[in-house]
Design brief:
This protein is α/β, with parallel strands linked by helices. It has a single domain, classed as Alpha-Beta Barrel (TIM Barrel). The chain contains 10 helices and 8 strands. An 8-stranded parallel beta sheet has the order 1-2-3-4-5-6-7-8. Helix 3 links the parallel strand 3 and strand 4. Helix 3 crosses helix 4, helix 5 packs parallel to helix 6 and helix 8 crosses helix 9. The longest helix is centred in the middle third of the chain and has 18 residues. The chain is globular, with a radius of gyration of 17 Å. The structure holds zinc ion (2 copies).
Length: 265
């Protein structure tokens, strides 16, 4: 069993066939999907999707691309929205200097607000970090000093220094289809260095379909290809990788109930 720890089922790409997408994920052996918020003003829509499927859970937060567009929520407001029984995490929030869509000071402020919400709620923060390794590491270090919080770096594409800093601070690291791309040699080296008990897999669907489906619209079922690539990188069987990453995501997103098949085991 695998869990897609990060997808965007609210995106218009899926509107016409969301039921079929979820059904294909189940057929591929996925036990859970976490649909990740990019805008707090889409909260009702995202919550409704999670309420429609037994195996879909959601998060609340503002993506760094939207930090200047989403109504800037207070820590208290995010914590309040996260109290919904199917809301299992905060984010995605973070810094993205590749696209630089929001002013960097606004994105940093919103990022810290989400960290505070994670700390207070006890829910894990889903961090989006792109081409901002030093600033993300500095903020994580600074905020962890104010009080512990749970977090993961999602769709990891950064360098070994940020991975090391994150691991030192107790964070987990999630890999997407980028791991399977032919030229992701350095990324696979970073993945090999992450302990098995800190690894997660995700699709980030509808983006970044893994090999051999690269270029297609991505969907949660395709996480099996990323998991297979990660198993090869770690030198473990696909079964061992699936068991480890599933246990890790259930431990991190501890508000999300384990699938019945695992509870019975
Ligand atoms: Zn992201
Ligand atoms: Zn995302």
């Amino acid at each position: 069993m695998l869990i897609d720890s990060h997808c965007h089922l609210d995106f218009p790409d899926f509107a016409a066939e969301r039921d079929a997408v979820v059904a294909r994920a189940r057929a591929a052996g996925l036990g859970r999907m976490i649909t990740i918020s990019t805008r707090i003003d889409k909260y009702d829509e995202i919550r409704a999707i999670a309420e429609s499927y037994d195996d879909v859970f959601f998060t609340v937060g503002t993506h760094p691309h939207q930090a200047h567009l989403d109504p800037e929520a207070s820590v208290e407001r995010i914590v309040e929205l996260a109290a919904h029984p199917r809301c299992v995490g905060i984010g995605e929030a973070g810094l993205d200097y590749h696209y630089d869509q929001a002013p960097r000071d606004v994105a940093a402020r919103v990022f810290r607000t989400h960290i505070a919400a994670a700390r207070i709620s006890g829910l894990p923060l889903v961090i989006h970090a792109r081409d901002a390794d030093a600033d993300v590491a500095a903020i994580l270090e600074d905020e962890m000093g104010k009080g512990a919080f749970k977090a993961l770096l999602h769709c990891f594409t950064a360098g070994p220094e940020l991975a090391a800093a994150a691991l030192r601070l107790g964070l987990s690291i999630s890999f997407s289809g980028v791991l399977t791309f032919k030229n992701s040699v350095a990324l696979r080296e970073v993945a090999a260095s992450v302990p098995l008990d800190r690894l997660l897999v995700e699709t980030d669907a509808p983006f970044l379909a893994p090999m051999p489906l690269r270029g297609k619209r991505n969907e949660p079922a395709f996480v099996v290809h990323t998991a297979a690539a990660l198993a090869a990188v770690k030198g473990v069987t696909p079964e061992a990788l699936a068991a480890a990453t599933t246990a890790n995501v259930l431990k991190l997103f501890s508000k999300m109930p384990a699938p019945a098949a695992l509870e019975a085991a």
